[in-house]
Amino acid sequence: MIAIQPxxxxxxxxxxxxxxxxxxxxxxxxxxxxxxxxAVIGKLSRLNLTRGTAGAERRPRKRSGEHPRKQTxxxxxxxxxxxxxxxxxxxxPVVSANSCSLLELSEQRCRWPISTPGADDFxxxxxxxxGGLPYCLGHYRLAYQFGPRQRTAxx
Length: 155
Fold this sequence. Notes:
Layout: H1 10-22, H2 26-33, H3 37-46, H4 73-84, E1 113-114, E2 123-124, H5 137-143
Antiparallel strand pairs: 1-2
């Protein structure tokens, strides 16, 4: 018969308290102790440990995972604008001089669809995309707009 070990040993509870006081997130505490995030949240609740008021200053969340946090589309757009310049012609149409068919489409071509699928003039942009992204700068700008959308037609 195998003896079941308790999840919350006195050592783990002390680790939980010290990590919590240091400001680590529940995810980071769970990873460090070797339990689930929900177990950490439940134990903190049973110990009546809270972070304080909503306006209290917290230290930035530290992620201890193996993968860095993925960038949001808005962060990517800001990065691209700083790298390639922020075009002043936000409403300028994108010229797709290198249009291509589905069979000609590759990772080295912008994958923005032009026209309606099934139509005689349907094709893809075909311009050179930005490093590792599916669209050229103009179509990336159209694909990731933040705030109220003003542009409705594809270009």
